[in-house]
Amino acid sequence: MKILNLYAGIGGNRKLWGDEHEITAIEINPEIAKIYQSFFPKDKVIVADAHQYLLEHFKEFDFIWSSPPCPSHSKIRNEAGIHFDKEIIYPDMKLYEEIILLKHFFKGFWVVENVISYYEPLIKPIKLQRHYFWSNFTIPLNKHFEQDNIYNSTTKSLNGKVFDISKFKSQLEYSGRTALRNCVNPKLALYIFNFAFKEKQQSLIEVRK
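^ that's the sequence the OP posted. Answer follows.
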């Protein structure tokens, strides 16, 4: 199976997917991409704009996971802007561009992940842990995943929970905390990944034929 992992970061979502698939990871930050590659040497890692890569290559894959940048949607951003005179910015609509493209043109299974937003989502997601998810397959909500209090975490407290990145400290400089905070809980990601290929999704496959 050919998998496209967009905005791959250091690979929190990908950690438990195994090595039996052909995985292409897209990450725009070359230093972060090097760290991802060190954790997943069998994956094809491309330093590129994930949003543009999706548009140009989505037909080549069987499963796509996308985690577009979340700061412009986060309720933390909104609260900071209101209460601490931080810069107010437009929400990045690339999130919804990708959902719409995948929903209407991609024939495989897909999931888009983002933070819980400060506004009512323009396209209805499901909510699991601290994330919104959009997909074209059923993701049951009866599984509990412990909250990780990610927003109040430090690099030291996060390191080792998903990956140990201490040896990359010189490469990451001040982005270590961000790289770790951006990781999706690997168990949560595996839970969703597995449901894309359960037998009960067979009807969706038949519809596409």
